[in-house]
Amino acid sequence: MPAIVLIGAQWGDEGKGKATDLLGSRVDYVVKFNGGNNAGHTVVVGDEKYALHLLPSGILTDGVVPVIANGVVVDIEVLFHELDALSARGVDVSKLLVSANAHIITQYHRTLDKVTERFLGKRQIGTTGRGIGPAYDDKINRVGIRIQDIFDENILRQKVEGALDQKNHLLVKIYNRRAIGVDEVVNDLLSYADRLRPMVADTGLVLNQALEAGKTVLFEGGQATMLDVDHGTYPFVTSSNATSGGAATGSGVAPNRIDRVIAVVKAYTTRVGAGPFPTELHDESGEFLRSRGFEFGTTTGRPRRTGWYDAPVARYSARINGVTDFVLTKLDVLTGLSTIPVCVAYEVDGRRVEEVPVSQSDFHHAVPIYEEFPGWSEDITGVRIFEDLPQAAQQYVLALEAMSGSRISAVGVGPDREAILVRHDLLG
Ligand code: GDP
Ligand code: IMO
Ligand code: MG
Q1: How far apart are the first and last CA of the chain?
Q2: pLDDT band at 305 (very low <50, low <70, confident <90, very high)
Q3: For 13-33, what is each residue's pLDDT tens digit?
Q4: Which ligand has the nearest atom to the CA of 110?
Q5: 103 CB under 6 A from ligand 2?
Q6: Which of 6, 268, 329 has most ligand 1 atoms within 8 Å of CB, for mutation?
Q7: For the chain, how many structural domains are there in total?
Q8: 183 Cα to the center of ligand 3, angstroms
Q9: Pair (121, 52) in one structural domain
């Protein structure tokens, strides 16, 4: 089972980092294929807690080759900062490979992210402010700067000049900000070249050769299905393809090489930033999920919006991604509830709708239709075998499995590395 994609099924923060870590040393390469340092993965190993943003979570496992592939947008300063912080804690970061074709997030992308959000006022997306959207904007507009460009000063200067020509008009005339100098940006980027050079590779070639040699490659998605620029709740999305198809375009490994698609899904739902969220709770149940699940953003610290499990969203994810296995996380957070509502369908304009509506306004107006499941009160964080879970917890998992369009192969019962029970081998 050599090529595995692991993605988020909801609006992010499902516990992808922990799921990647679970596969650990059985994987040879862990590839980040989309997004940038908007991601935030918290992985708990023993007493140590790691918060990763730009680096794939596989970097925490000895022997794994972490890869930042072409589909990623890279803030080089953040990259170095994250590498230094991990090295200081004894993590071996020497194997990291960075695609020559990945795009760079520069100072002007970060500035533009912040000013455009401010300009949008009430219509803002609630981005992470890391420059992600503007960097992808330039990529699609064909005025982006790629990693390989910083090794050729002439080309770099021409490209930065071209990009700033447009940006400075915007910054000065529309947003009333100071113009950014070409030298400032070029010198900044050139200063990274020496340290970056040994990490840069044709990662598409490396990964295909690894697969030919029978190695196991895990593609770890940032963000999630409902934040995907094509399949998510547009325009309240990120600017990349966070769904399984993005693993192919974002890495240079063809779709027919991918053997398995694992979707990580929370036993309830959270969302950071603006946009539709049918099962959102504004009452004490929402507060219960937030405090018990510690639902605060890893990247921005913002409180996450919380709500019940949305089965149509999980089913939609199963369909869009070709999910073969779900990893259900944070079941332990629901302990103590007397009943647990699950959204099984929506009501839209008086009609029952079984699937996520294609129309943006229908999804905005979708009212969840709930089915109630009995809760449990026993502490489940120490359980490692499915049959040892309280009956009600087993029933809840089996009900979600029946509604969500694919089998649930592992269940998370706590933040620790070991706090997971495996029902079907994710690599077997
Ligand atoms: P990611 O962005 O998908 O990698 O997820 P985040 O790391 O942003 O958020 C998931 C949070 O839930 C992290 O703090 C994890 O340590 C934690 N977590 C993961 N799985 C479980 C679980 O099964 N139970 C509990 N209580 N916490 C979990
Ligand atoms: P992980 O990988 C949750 C959200 C932002 C905002 C929208 C666009 O940890 O699951 P962006 O900065 O990407 O332009 O913001 O996407 N967002 C995330 N929400 N988890 C993430 O990553 C996210 N990355 C971006 O809050 O609503
Ligand atoms: Mg996260």
Answers
A1: 7
A2: very high
A3: 999 999 998 888 899 999 999
A4: 2
A5: no
A6: 329
A7: 2
A8: 35
A9: no
